[in-house]
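Weekly modeling sync, notes
Attendees: S.R. (lead), two postdocs, one rotation student

Agenda item 3: backlog of single-chain predictions. S.R. asked that every request posted to the team notebook include the full sequence so nobody has to chase files. The rotation student volunteered to paste the first one in as an example of the format we agreed on. Action items at the bottom.

Example entry:
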Amino acid sequence: MVLLAGAPTPTGGRSLRGFRTFPNAAADIVGSHNSPPEGGDDARGGDVEREIDGEAGTPGVREPRARQGHVLTGLVGRGIQKSRSPAMHEAAGRHCGLALEYRLLDVDRMGPPTPSLGAILDRAEAEGFAGVNVTHPYKQEVLRHLGRISDSARAVGAVNTVVFGDGERIGHNTDSWGFREAFRAELGDARRDTVVLLGAGGGGAAVSHALMETGVGRLLVIDPEPDRAAALVAKLDAQFGGGRVVVAANLAGAIAAADGVINATPVGMDSHPGSPVPDDLVRPSMWVADIVYFPIETELLRTARAKGCRTMGGGHMAILQAARAFEHFTGLTADVETMRAAFLAAG
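Predicted structure, as returned to the notebook:
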């Protein structure tokens, strides 16, 4: 039986409904050699810190899955029904002559009972997925379920791309590179002596690392979980030094002193409506970026544009990170313009 088959989405992917049909599946999978009990350590936890050399298209990356014919990939997350990833990946596959299928594994559509992340990964691997993308809220939790991680994932401390093969799982982070390149293209000349980052989770970790690489003078990190913000600041300080990253507790004070602000929280998504920044704190002289891309114009961006701010939406980053993830899944070079066209058409 095919547990991961589900109803087609408007973009051609499939959603994961099988755990509702087979309620005992999660219980059968938890405790396999690949996933730890909930709240426990990964049986392969000692390997999580092992790195692999190289990224897509370089030595150290497995043989292309494309040689095996049909390529099955997907996205694991919550509230992802409006994701444009299926459209982008399947278009890139067609451009390369692949029969590629990209499914939405939306945990909000699974259960009862709701399966664990480990159970979902186990089942996807057993069903022959080449790999999966991972999004909110699993980009850091997924580290416990991996055998190896790339240099980029280790530097960021989060994974958004998991490749299956040869009995192991390799984690990559394509978010950081995607954000960095999008930022350089759209806001590369913007003043960034002081920048406010909203969110210290997996997305925030990727964005913060990219920002430091672009030469941000001072980064103020705000997160509703102070310990998580402090952990990210400590990691960045160890990597980049100079005491340039600090935890900020006062949103109004931080934004008043900032050249720009970046939203790396889920607030603004269709499933988490609203804005993380009160309208009266947005000034015309600042720039505003948001990594949320569904909707493509969030409430925060709409307010910022109305006030005359320079802005950057999450679409450019989404396209670039997807292109690199496609390369990890298939071993083939993605055509970015094909993926961009699919992204825009999916809206």
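Discussion: group reviewed the output briefly. The first helix runs from residue 18 to 21.
Action items: rotation student to repeat for the remaining queue; S.R. to check formatting next week.
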